[in-house]
Amino acid sequence: LMVYLSLWQFHRLDERKTFNSEVRERSSLGIVDISTLDTSDPSSVEWRPAGAKGTYIPDEQVLILNRSQGGVAGMNVLTPLQLADGRAVIINRGFIALSATPPPAPAGVVKVVGVLRSTEERSTGQAREVSGELTEFFRLDIDRLRQQIEPELLAVALVAEVSEPADSSTLLPVS
Fold first, then answer.
1. What are the angstrom distances between the C-alpha of 75 and each of 36, 83, 125, 135, 153?
2. Is 2 left (phi over 0), alpha (psi -120 to 50) or beta?
3. Does residue 26 sit in helix, strand or coil?
4. Which helix (H) or strand (E) holds 74?
5. Beta strand 153-164 pairing with 72-83
6. Are the C-beta atoms of residues 129 and 143 closer than 8 Å to each other?
């Protein structure tokens, strides 16, 4: 049993090294316009720097609950950004403490640069979202968001690092 477990640990180490290598490689790529990317396989573009230009759809803003950052309990604020071609991408605008009120998204045309992420998988024992129109989620679930957001959503989300015009200072970059 101990030999089996040690082999399992070495296998996990190899998987982790491969993952870390892929993240480093993709993170070092230049910023690409998200509207030109093929996002049909989200795992092939995850962790890549990208930029998007469009208009926020504030009525479709949702919160991802149960987040923690720097020892502070809070949530992530997600707002879809409608691109020029009519599609939309979910923008993770940032983290706010539980005691804060989510700020409205900037109005007008916005340019956002960040890192692409794919849907978060539901962990064992994690609660499921109920049906219907939701404003609060337990995880970033792009397929679930597609059920309630009208423009076609890209299969990836963009975690904002820089926004022009700048977003609210109450939002902290997601780390």
1. 30, 25, 20, 12, 22
2. alpha
3. helix
4. strand 72-83
5. unpaired
6. no
How far is CA 145 from its chain centroid? Answer: 12
- Amino acid letter, residue 129: E
Q: Is 150 helix (H, G, I), strand (E, B) or coil?
A: coil
Quick check: 151 and 57 in contact, CB under 8 A?
Answer: yes
- With a cut of 70, say whether residue 38 has pLDDT above it: yes
**What pLDDT, in 10s, does the model give residues 119-173?**
988 665 556 666 778 899 999 999 999 999 989 999 999 999 999 999 999 999 9
- Per DSSP, the three-state class of 34 is helix
Question: What is the CA angle 141-99-91, rounded to 5?
Answer: 30
Rounded to 5°, the CA angle 44-48-49 comes to 155
Burial of 120 (0-12, 13-18, 19+ CB in 10 A): middle
Lookup: tokens for 97: 């403490």
Closest CA to 156 of 44, 21, 76, 28: 44
Cβ-contact 83, 54 below 8 angstroms: yes
